[in-house]
What we know:
Helix Hairpins, five-stranded mixed beta sheet, 14% strand, elongated
Amino acid sequence: MTRRPRAPVVLFGLLVLYMLLQSAWWMWLLLSKDRDILALQSQLAAAGLVPVLPVRQPQHARMMVLGEGMVFLLLLLAGLWATYRTVRHDLQLARQQQDFILAVSHELRTPIAGLKLHLQTLERPGLQEEQRKQLSRHAREDVERLHGLSERILQASRLENRSEPLVFAPVDLAALARFLVKEAALTHGTGHELALDAPAELAARTDADAFRTVLGNLVENSCKYAPQGTNVQVAVERVPSGVKLRVSDEGPGIQPRDQERMYEKFFRGGSESTRTAKGVGLGLFIVQRTMEEIGGTLKYRHTEPHGATFEAVFPDQA
Length: 318
């Protein structure tokens, strides 16, 4: 995780403090000068040097200065708040761009280097047919990894621009979950024990692609961070508000300091320079945006003694 630059925030805070103190000083100065003028006017009138004029009450002047000062302060604070939001947004974009560049660079480097090595090896004479098949299989895996990365980035862009159409139709989510878990066991869960708890049939009217996206990303995320040989549990059940999908693992879970940002695009806990798990920080972003699009809910809780559990409730439009 990149460190948040503190210098702009500190400078902005000092600027706000200076302007507030300056406003208070000018208000006090105006009131002080007004009192001096009223005192001088009274002295001159008493000496007969000037005609006696109606004396303005001090509280009237005080109310006028305070009223004008409050209006000025409110306008000033509104402008400062707008400036602060703009600066914070720019800092967040810069942080996301840095995280994206570091993560994508790491994700591209490994499969590209693997492809280069496999192709160079295939050019060598005297390779046996079994060796060629094995090298070709590894090359296809690297290509699939690159394809998955590009698809995930495009999917995140479509979700962010809300250009992904929703199709609510009757679907057996239990059968779909069995197919997806079996598929995930072959692609992501070779080192984990994937188990599914689902009824024989669970019909619902919802978006099948959204269910596929959420389950696939949550299972892949668990397989990335949970230690080899541990269990990944998937459960699908009917609840009053729709259909609940639950994915639990025995990994380290998400640190409390990272939970506030875990759904941000390109965010990954820890440091990009020292991280070993694959990914670019789009999985949970895609899951959260997908659930938001279909009107569902997404919750995270820490599993004792360790692990992560995500619960996604899909609305049934029946």
